[in-house]
Design goal:
Elements (H helix, E strand, L loop, with lengths): L1 E6 L3 H14 L3 E8 L5 E8 L12 E4 L16 E5 L12 E5 L7 E6 L3 E6 L3 E2 L5 E2 L2 E6 L6 H13 L5
Parallel strand pairs: 1-4, 4-5, 5-6
Antiparallel strand pairs: 1-3, 2-3, 7-8, 8-11, 9-10
Helix pairs in contact: 1-2
């Protein structure tokens, strides 16, 4: 089971894309919200290959879409993964085991080498570990996406799928 918390102004779209990609692979996926404070709640997605009732708790994976996302109420443990949008960099990176970056920035771990109206040529530029310790090596692959979707959110959802071992 993987629990993913998504922070940022387009978090609902990224959550929807991630849910859609997981369900296309036949995984059980549900969305809910995670309460950071009395005023703040964030989208959270739970996926489970066993189709069991999900247990929503502290996310193992955090997606930070913009610099303002380092909320003082956010708990990032050392053994979680943090997926960061490099096009809107976070000023102070959290300390944790797995930081993976995505974006159109040339320094991103996952980027797009080309883009059309409905497809991305995704480029994994640097190796990274998944939740199950599988290693994604540098590679390229093509993926389709809805024309109405923000390509940056598509990259974020693809990166999250890879970290969660949702294979392409």
């Amino acid at each position: 089971m993987a629990i993913v918390g998504i922070l940022g102004k387009d978090s609902d779209e990224l959550a929807d894309l991630f849910l859609h990609m997981c369900r296309q692979k036949g995984l059980f996926a549900l969305a809910s919200s995670y309460k950071l404070t009395d005023e703040n709640a964030i989208p959270i997605v739970c996926i489970d290959e066993n189709n069991s009732t999900p247990f929503f708790s502290q996310p193992q994976i955090w997606i930070l879409q913009e610099a303002a996302n380092l909320n003082p109420h956010l708990t990032i443990t050392e053994n979680c993964h943090v997926i960061i949008n490099t096009d809107n960099p976070v000023s102070a990176l959290p300390t944790c085991e797995g930081i993976i970056t995505y974006g159109f920035n040339s320094k991103a771990s996952v980027t797009a080498s080309s883009i059309s109206d409905d497809a991305l040529q995704v480029c994994i530029q640097r190796s990274f570990k998944t939740l199950s310790d599988r290693i994604y090596e540098p590679q390229e692959f093509n993926t389709a996406f809805p024309q109405s979707a923000n390509p940056l959110n598509v990259l974020g959802a693809i990166t999250t799928c890879a970290v969660c071992d949702v294979l392409f």
